[in-house]
Write a structure and sequence with these properties.
The chain is α+β, with helices and mostly antiparallel strands and about 170 residues long. The protein contains three helices and eleven strands. The radius of gyration is 15 Å and the shape is globular.
């Protein structure tokens, strides 16, 4: 996910490096994956800004559909949120809408959502599911297939909504 511009946040390269490292070491197991209790700590570790309220300089939404073998999987409510803290990248409900509400322009990555969620995401794995000769992991922005490391998926956000789809599917 990408929005360009300047920000007082750490460098975008540092954020991407952190997101890749965290996503590769995150939780495993089978879906559905629950919301972790340390979602704010995980957001900070992923290089996301966390404040006492939502950012207002940048505000738009993306939609994440997660399909495992053709079956929709829930994205939990409350990723990047507590009663007193908000990450600039978060969910309010289980609809799959990712809220980007930041204090300034920046770059946001699919891997950061999975970092907050504590679900491993690499080019071959999602959670505890690994790609093989029959099953693979694919990422799409709209209907466009992105052949890349899913933790690095970047989509230019164009308000009002960009759809992100990451999932493992039968080939």
């Amino acid at each position: 996910m990408v929005a360009s511009g300047s920000s007082n946040k750490p460098s975008q390269t540092a954020n991407l490096t952190k997101a890749i490292r965290l996503a590769a070491s995150a939780g495993t197991g089978s879906p559905p994956w629950p919301r972790p209790t340390d979602t704010i700590t995980r957001a900070q570790q992923a290089g996301l800004f966390v404040g006492s309220s939502e950012g207002t300089a940048v505000h738009f939404h993306a939609h994440l559909d997660l399909l495992i073998n053709g079956q929709s999987q829930p994205v939990p409510a409350g990723l990047g949120l507590t009663s007193t803290k908000d990450s600039e990248l978060h969910t309010h409900d289980a609809s799959g809408v990712i809220h980007i509400e930041a204090p300034g322009q920046g770059q946001w990555f699919l891997g950061q959502v999975f970092d907050e969620w504590n679900v491993r995401l690499t080019s071959t794995d999602i959670g505890g599911l690994a790609a093989n000769a029959k099953d693979n992991l694919r990422a799409y922005v709209g209907s466009l297939y992105l052949p890349c490391d899913c933790g690095e998926v970047r989509a230019v956000f164009v308000p009002p909504v960009t759809t992100l789809v990451a999932g493992r599917r039968d080939v």
